[in-house]
Each structure stands twice: as structure tokens, then as C-alpha cells.
Amino acid sequence: MTEQTISRARAGDEDAFRELTDPYQRELQLHIYRIVGSAQDAEDLLQETLLAAWRGLEQFEGRASVRAWLYRIATNRSLDALRASRRRPEDQRMTQMPEPTRWSEPVWLEPYPDSLLEAIPDEAPGPEARYETRETIALAFIVGLQHLPSQQRAVLVLRDVLGYRAGEVAEMLDTTEASVNSLLRRARAAFESRLPASGRERAPLPESKLERDVVSRFAETVENGDIDGIVALLSDDAWLTMPPLPHAYQGRNAIGRFLRGAEERRGAPMRLVPTRANTQPAFGCYLSVSEVDVARAFSLLVLTLKGDRISAITWFADSSVFPQFGLPRMLQ
């Protein structure tokens, strides 16, 4: 059936091409996101991947599966995009924010809507995979990837997340197995040093009663402007970060100082709308506009939970991601 479908697609049958590629689109988009760190760029690069596949069908020899062939195109398009953009956030240390616990290396990063994960087949990764699928979507994992050089990032994702063998990855990247193995060794050493020691297994199950209880208490305290209540929900070693800003705050005292200063600058508590990002609870945050009875999109918060405590708050100030989460620009 696949050979017949490929023949029809090569003859210009768009329905046949969609039959070949539709089953892989969502997982390809997630793959691209892991490499580039932007959900919006991943959507654009997915379309570029499909266009390149359509135009390159004559060159598809069938030595690899259609899925592997698409991953090859998507990976190389992602690497080309990273080389072309070379995006680096400006160093924004001169701000009104309190001195952070540490200055982190700035990284470009956007949250990934859970709604885009629903259509991905629940297939086991290849035999070389080292990580559970859920772990590889979590923000801590994605942040760690963004600190790697682009080639190392791609190799680690293809080998340790998707489970492709070294020879398959070498063919995808048009290099040698020795080069792939060297890149992977360096990537693993740098990447694993950044992963949280406790891992994700200590988080409550998604949508469980424990998760709902913690998340609802957090929302209530935020909307009430109860900074002490927010701080009480944090673990002792909790972090607050704001990609791409380099500011990173750890611990209840440091995070409490930041939150009090932020609320003072805003002048009013926020209104929250629940959503999910990177398999974690999240909120679209809105600020009231004093002249009219509406609240405008302000930022998106993603929570990392550990037991019945919040171990990390990731604050995304760019509200342009709201449409991808189905969040409105304004609240009445």
C-alpha cells in the first residue's frame, strides 16, 4: 500500500501525499520544537518540511521509512533555521527587578500547548531511546536542550529521545557514525548535568486530585494578591525563571521579593485562566485595564510540581503565544 501511495504522490496526487505525511505531522512538529525551542517557529518549519518533502519525493529512494525520511528533512530544516537566526536576547540586567539568585544564560524558549500533543500516536521510541516520552516534553528537559550547540541538540534528540541508531542518525545528518557518537558523548555530559536531580517522577499525575488542589490554591492566592500564600505553596528549593531573561530566583525569600516587586509595578492582582503547557499546569494571566471593564493578555505561567509543592514557576512574558493555547486576548 505504501509503495502505491508513494507512486500516486509522485504523480502529483495531493491526497496520496497527505495520506503519507498526515500521521506524522504532530510528532514532527514536537520534534522541531525540541530543537528550536519555539512553538510558533515549529509550526512554520513543519510547513517548510512538508513542502520540501512534496518537492523531493523523486529523491526518496525508500531505503528508510517515510517517517525517518520526514525526520531527516525536519531536523535539517531546524538546524538551518537555528544557523540563520542566531537569536540572542539582549542582556537586560538593568531593570527594576531585584538582584537574582543567579544570572542564567539567556535562552529563547516558548511553552508548548498540550492540545498539540493529543494527536501524537502513543508509540514506544526506538531501541536506543533513554528517556520516557513524558519526560522529554517537560520544560526542564526543553530548557536543557536549548543550552546545547545545535548539532549536539539534534543528535541527542534523535538518539536518546526518538531512539534512532547511530547509523540512521549519521545518514540523516549526512555525517559519519564516529561523528554522531562524539557529538552524543559531549551532549550527554553537558545535558545531564542540567537536569533536575529529582526528575519528574515526583510530580503528581496530570489532572489528579493532588495536582488540582495545588493548582487551584495557587490560582486563588494569585488572584487575591496573596503573596505570602503563593510563597507558602513553594518548595524550599523552588526556582522562578523568565525566559529569555537571565534572571533566576531560588527559594521562598528570593521569589517572594520578586513577586512583591512585580505586583507593586503592576498595581493590581492578575486574573488567571487555566491551561496546560509541556504536560504541566499553566495559566494565562490577564491585567485589568482601568479605563474599561476588561483585562488584557499579560503573560503565561507554567508550574512544575513536586508532591504537594510548586518546585518551579516559569514566567513567559510574551502574550503572543496565547492564540496557540486557545486563550483570548481580552477578558470581559
Largest sheet: 8 strands, mixed
| Total strands | 8
Write down the CATH class of the largest domain: Alpha Beta
**CATH-derived architecture of the largest domain:** Roll
CATH topology of the largest domain: Nuclear Transport Factor 2, Chain: A
Task: Determine the structural class based on helices, strands and strand pairing.
Answer: alpha+beta
SS strand fraction:
15-25%
Shape: globular
What is the radius of gyration computed over CA atoms, rounded to a whole number of angstroms?
21 Å
Helix content: 40-55%
How many distinct helices? Answer: 12
Mean pLDDT: 91
- The domain count comes to 3
- The N- and C-terminal alpha carbons lie at a distance of 53 Å
Q: Segments where pLDDT lies below 50 for 5+ residues?
A: none
What sequence of helices (H) and strands (E) makes up the elements?
HHHHHEHHHHHHEEHEEEEE
